[in-house]
Amino acid sequence: MRLSVFGCGNMGSAVVRAIRENEPALEILTYSPSGSSAQKLAKAVKGFQQGQIKSMFPCDVALLAMKPQQLETFIDQTAELFTPQTVIVSLLAGVDIATLQSKLNSDQVLRLMPNTPTLVGKGIITYAASSEMKRDSLSKILSWLTSSAKIFKMKDEDQLNRTMGVSASGPGLLFELALLFYKKLMADGLTDKDARLMVAELFAGSGELMLGSVESFEELRNNVTSKGGVTEASLQVLSSNNQFASLIDQALEANYRRSQELLDK
């Protein structure tokens, strides 16, 4: 079986590395316009870099991991090379299933939205598949990823796009919060090493607590918050006029709007 990977950036590489862990015999071909990222990924997964895009065909599964703005050029170069038997797996935000079906010669399309913790086996992957996708093909591809991420089926593409702000972009928001904590600790006189470790352990430990507890997130928060205490003082600042919750909601809505803007292009 042959997997052809088009685009070898962080997310594409994370998914391909996860696939390789579960499918050691799978033939993997990689391609990127510059060639450097494809060469790096091919070496990491014992695959084969291709210098010409047409050399990536025929393939059983085509993983589209390029930037969305590169899709039009990709279609111009490859549309006639796809067959109805090719399974298209897309990581492209803002590119819907119908567009890929109409531009490429296959109705079997699977959209995946992974996040970067997939690189360390702690990822989240949401997905939506075309109705024409064969059940055995879908099951096989998803089975390639289960050791590196928790898999969540979305009811439709709109839900996939709406939840992307948390599932796929969420790590970026958490890293932004981590950076703010880190900067405050540095300002308070901690060393770079200690500040970085403290923040990383804070997030890792809190995550483990959420996963291992039967209590709700609200209860876990309340367990840290004593009446009239220091944690309550911090939370009161964030909750003043509902400003923190409003900012988070605005950020997630902006994420969804951007996915729709990409779709409309």
Verbal overview:
- With 265 residues, the chain is α/β, with parallel strands linked by helices.
- The chain folds into two domains: 2-164, Rossmann fold, CATH 3.40.50; 170-264, ProC C-terminal domain-like fold (Orthogonal Bundle), CATH 1.10.3730.10.
- The chain is built from eleven helices and eight strands.
- It has helices spanning 10-22, 36-45, 71-78, 97-103, 135-143, 157-167, 170-187, 192-212, 217-224, 230-239, 243-264; strands at 2-6, 27-31, 48-49, 61-64, 87-90, 109-114, 123-129, 149-153.
- It has an eight-stranded mixed beta sheet, sandwiched between helices.
- The longest helix is centred in the last third of the chain and has 22 residues, at 243-264.
- It starts with a strand and ends with a helix.
- The mean pLDDT is 95.
- Name the average pLDDT: 95
Count of folded domains:
2
Terminal CA distance reads 34 Å
What class, by secondary structure content?
alpha/beta
* Shape annotation: elongated
Uncertain segments of ≥5 residues (pLDDT<50)?
A: none
Q: Main sheet: which strands, in order across? A: 3-2-1-4-5-6-7-8
Largest sheet: 8 strands, mixed
CATH top level label of the largest domain? Alpha Beta
The ordered string of helix (H) and strand (E) elements is: EHEHEEHEHEEHEHHHHHH
Annotation, overall tally of beta strands:
8
SS strand fraction: 5-15%
Classify the fold: give the CATH topology of the largest domain: Rossmann fold
CATH architecture of the largest domain: 3-Layer(aba) Sandwich
CATH superfamily of the largest domain: NAD(P)-binding Rossmann-like Domain
Number of helices: 11
Rg from alpha-carbon coordinates: 21 Å
| Helix content bin | 40-55%
